[in-house]
Write a structure and sequence with these properties.
The protein has 207 residues and is an alpha+beta fold. It has six helices and eight strands, in the order ααααααββββββββ.
Length: 207
């Protein structure tokens, strides 16, 4: 009888080196018979961190969207408020001419000439209507006589000595200024008291 015939039928084959390596690889890749890839606590912590990150991104996106909406709304409001600025500059010149016309009428002329008096009354009524329209449009007149010089709203045309006023005080208004909704529409042209510094601030007389 040969040696192969004498070998037991139920003999098992010893695992080779390659077979053992394959089994180890499968375990490392999370195969069912391998070790667990991580504890439940680790997986929960990882998911919570991802949720927190996504929540933060969402809140940032919502805040940016709200800021964009507010900026767009503010731009629309500004466009509505200041769309008439160019037209308003033309109208303030009309107001200047109406006031010059009234100032040119002497007080005694009104008393002596009924026609001149009626004309002056009509011009005054027109001026009142114009300023009422200015108020509705948010246009305000600046007549800063007696106020401290403000470079944001006033333009100094000259300085006057020996006025008895503090340096930088507006003592004469050559032309009133105007604002529209708080924004400068036209500077007031003024003369200020001379004295070097105004409250520690030098008055620049350059127009």
């Amino acid at each position: 009888m040969s040696e192969e015939q004498n070998k037991p039928a139920d003999a098992t084959v010893e695992p080779t080196e390659a077979t053992a390596e394959t089994a180890n690889t499968g375990a490392a890749n999370g195969a069912p018979n391998g070790a667990d890839a991580g504890s439940p606590e680790d997986r929960v912590a990882k998911l919570e961190a991802e949720v927190a990150s996504l929540k933060d991104q969402l809140l940032r996106a919502m805040a940016e969207t709200e800021n964009t909406r507010r900026r767009a709304q503010r731009d629309r409001e500004d466009a509505t408020k200041f769309a008439v600025s160019s037209f308003a500059k033309e109208l303030v010149s009309v107001a200047d001419n109406l006031r010059r016309a009234l100032d040119a009428v002497p007080a005694e002329g009104r008393e002596q000439d009924d026609m001149l008096k009626g004309l002056a009354v009509g011009v005054e009524a027109t001026e009142r209507q114009l300023f009422a329209a200015f108020d509705r449009a948010g246009i305000k007149k600046l007549d800063p006589a007696g106020e401290p010089f403000d470079p944001n709203f006033h333009q100094v045309m000259f300085e006057i000595e020996n006025t008895g006023k503090a340096a930088g005080t507006v003592v004469q208004v050559l032309q009133p200024g105007y604002t529209i909704h708080g924004r400068l529409l036209r500077e007031a042209m003024v003369g200020v008291a001379k004295g070097g510094d105004a409250g520690g601030q030098h008055v620049d007389t350059k127009a």
